[in-house]
Amino acid sequence: MTAPDRATVRRTSTRLADGRELIYFDDSEPYVSGGATRRLDDPRPLSDRFAPVTGEDGVPRPVTGPEMRYDVLTGEWVPMAAHRMNRTHLPPADANPLAPARPGAAYSDGEIPDTDYDVVVFENRFPSLMAVPGVEDVVDHVDGEELWPTRPAAGRCEVICFSPDSTASLAGVGRRRMRTVIEAWADRTAELSALPGIEQVFCFENRGREIGVTLHHPHGQIYAYPYLTPRTATMLRQARAHRERTGRNLLRDVLDAELHSGRRVVAESEHWAAYVPAAARWPVEVHLAPRRDVPDLPALTDAECDDLAEIYLRLLQGGDRFFVVPPGEEDSGGPIHLPYIAAWHQAPVREGRDDLRLHLQLFSVLRAPGKLKYLAGSESGMGAWISDTTPERIADRLREVVPAGAGPA
């Protein structure tokens, strides 16, 4: 298969003052044609992030990155990133690090040097995963005990800003800008997948205080893991068992079964289908899958990306209409901006490319206006999920609120 055509987006990479990479993805003039270039220098007096760190004793020591430890009871790696305790948390509007630089200001402590941007991606200043130059990715043991393996959390964490407007949301950026976001996701997935030791790339968005966001600016994140995440490992195990029994792809069969039933299908387009899974766990949950078997975002064609931009915005807009303000309250009957997590499940970099399939999982912890789904004893203690609703009720409501589209060809 030939490489997919790509939208007209100009990609410009630079380095921030401490050495982190920043990439502008431009779709507007005069930048997309090269008639002008975004600001590339970072005036902040930041030291190189990998420079030796001087301790209280005055002795400089090599910088250390986050580590991860192996949980022998679950078979999972757990990154330890204690430095994130001091990361920026819900700053005031005039201290928003994701906002563009202030016009005319000689200096501002934001992450984006230019006074405007379309979409921008940069390495996280407080990463959970980070590869430190010169540090080998080898297994050691906590306290010298072989039962407790540990190794560097040598991955990469990036931030993607969807809009320069701190009051905007991804649901309202428009199809052209959404298409640029998709292009950035695909670009970063391909680039990060090629890094040494990376096993999986995860593009996601957290939105809303209820989800736990530390910055309200419309943005998402991209993680490149040096291991398979627990959910992906579980899906891969199930998919391999299904293939051994049937000879077929599990996620392909799931999509076909949902389309055949139709009971929980929420929206369809030429290249995509959205449905509430038959065993949905969350109070609001919908999956979006391509009709064609595709392992990851870079494998999408230009037509599939164009179609995705339209149907994805419809789902986000529908989510913001799912709940309304209860009667008797101010703005009664008005919509509630849904707190959500949007998670792109992609096939791992190496193993499972033929067994796992690209799909989006969009879900919310909000179970009713002002009420959250808490992961209490059964869910947190035993991993035994209990749903507060039914998938059919979720689907019925989503069909009421998701805007109509062109439908499948």
TrEMBL record:
Its EC number is 2.7.7.12. Residues 241-400 form the Galactose-1-phosphate uridyl transferase C-terminal domain. It catalyses: alpha-D-galactose 1-phosphate + UDP-alpha-D-glucose = alpha-D-glucose 1-phosphate + UDP-alpha-D-galactose. Keywords: Carbohydrate metabolism, Galactose metabolism, Metal-binding, Nucleotidyltransferase, Transferase, Zinc. One of its GO terms (cellular component) is cytoplasm. One of its GO terms (molecular function) is zinc ion binding. One of its GO terms (biological process) is galactose catabolic process via UDP-galactose, Leloir pathway. Pathway: Carbohydrate metabolism; galactose metabolism. It comes from the Bacteria. Residues 91-103 have a biased composition (Low complexity). Residues 27-67, 91-110 are annotated as: Disordered. Residues 66-228 form the Galactose-1-phosphate uridyl transferase N-terminal domain. Residues 38-47 have a biased composition (Basic and acidic residues). Its cofactor is Zn(2+). The active site is at 219 (tele-ump-histidine intermediate). InterPro entries: GalP_UDPtransf1, GalP_UDPtransf1_His-AS, GalP_Utransf_C, GalP_Utransf_N, HIT-like_sf. Belongs to the galactose-1-phosphate uridylyltransferase type 1 family. This is Galactose-1-phosphate uridylyltransferase. It comes from Georgenia muralis.
